[in-house]
Write a structure and sequence with these properties.
The complex is a heterodimer of chains A (93) and B (151).
Chain A (H helix, E strand, L loop, with lengths): L1 E5 L13 E5 L3 H11 L3 H5 L10 E5 L2 E2 L15 E6 L2 E2 L3
Chain B lengths: L11 E5 H14 L5 E6 L5 E7 L9 E2 L2 H14 L2 E9 L8 H5 L7 E6 L6 E8 L2 E10 L1 H4 L3
Parallel strand pairs in B: 1-8, 5-6
Antiparallel strand pairs in B: 2-3, 2-5, 6-7, 7-8
The chains are: A alpha+beta (93), B alpha/beta (151).
Chain lengths: 93, 151
C-alpha cells in the first residue's frame, strides 16, 4: 500500500525535485527503508547509523509527530500522509 | 565588506517595509529571547507574509522553531500556494551575522536567512544565503510595500 510522502525543499535534490512521492510501507521504518531504495542517499539524511531518526528531523503522519506516537514503528494505513520536516534552528551562540 | 569568510555581496533582496516591521515587532516582543519565524513568497517570488513561530528553546542565544507551529506554517504555505522565501531569527545582543551554530544548522540552502540584530538602535536586518557551510551576504533593501506590489 503506497502513501504520499511530502519531501521538504532541502531533500528534493535527492528525489529529482519531486515535492511528494508515493512509497510503500506498513510503518514509518519501512517507508524510510523504501525511500532509500528508490532515492539513494536520503536514508542517511533522515536516520543515523543505528537507524534512529536524526535529532533535527521531524516526521509527521497526518497531523501527528511520530515522536508522540510509536516513533519509527508508527503504523501507516491507506490514505495517510507522511511529512518529513527538518527542524529550523540556530542562534547566536 | 562583510565578515571574515563571507563571500561578496551578490544579490539585491527586496523586503516590503510592512514585513520588515513585522519581523522586528515580533523579535522585539520576545526579547531577551531570540525570536524566529518564516517569510513566505507568492508564486512570482515576492515576499508576501511573515509567520512568527515560537522559539521552543526560549533562549537568548539559541532558537529552535516549535515543531507543531513549523508544521502548521508549512501547511499554510502549501495551502496558499506560497513558497518558503526566508527564515528569520534575532540576535538580541550580538551582531546580526550567522554564528557557527547558524551555519551548522542551516538545512535550507535554497532559502534566505534574515537575522535581526537588536543590539543597536535602530535594530538592523541583514540577509544571507548559507550553502554547504559557506555564507554569502545579500544587499537587503527595505522598500515601500507598493514597490513589490507591481503587477
Amino acid at each position: 500500500m503506497a502513501v504520499v510522502v511530502r519531501i521538504p525543499t532541502p531533500l528534493r535534490k535527492l528525489t529529482g525535485n519531486q515535492n511528494e512521492v508515493r512509497e510503500e510501507g506498513g510503518t514509518i521504518r519501512e517507508i524510510l527503508k523504501n525511500l532509500e531504495l528508490h532515492y539513494p542517499g536520503i536514508g542517511e539524511r533522515l536516520a543515523d547509523e543505528s537507524g534512529e531518526l536524526r535529532r533535527f528531523i521531524n516526521v509527521y503522519v497526518n497531523e501527528e509527530d511520530i515522536r508522540f506516537r510509536e516513533g519509527l514503528d508508527t503504523p501507516i494505513k491507506p490514505g495517510d500522509e507522511v511529512s518529513i520536516i527538518p527542524a529550523i534552528a540556530g542562534g547566536a551562540a | 565588506m562583510g565578515m571574515p569568510g563571507s563571500r561578496p555581496l551578490n544579490r539585491e533582496i527586496l523586503l516590503p517595509a510592512s514585513l520588515s516591521k513585522e519581523i522586528l515587532v515580533h523579535c522585539l516582543s520576545v526579547r531577551p529571547e531570540e525570536g524566529c519565524g518564516l517569510v513566505a513568497a507568492d508564486s512570482s517570488g515576492r515576499a508576501v507574509a511573515v509567520l512568527p513561530i515560537t522559539n521552543a528553546l526560549h533562549s537568548p542565544v539559541r532558537y529552535q522553531m516549535e515543531t507543531r507551529e513549523q508544521f502548521d506554517a508549512m501547511k499554510r504555505l502549501r495551502r496558499e500556494g506560497w513558497s518558503l522565501w526566508a527564515i528569520f531569527h534575532s540576535h538580541p545582543h550580538s551582531e546580526p551575522a550567522p554564528s557557527p551554530t547558524d551555519i551548522r544548522l542551516a538545512f535550507y540552502p535554497d532559502c534566505l536567512y534574515i537575522i535581526a540584530g537588536l543590539g543597536t538602535d535602530p535594530p538592523i536586518l541583514r540577509c544571507f544565503s548559507i550553502v554547504d557551510g559557506k555564507i554569502s551576504e545579500h544587499i537587503l533593501r527595505i522598500v515601500p510595500d507598493s514597490v513589490t506590489n507591481l503587477d
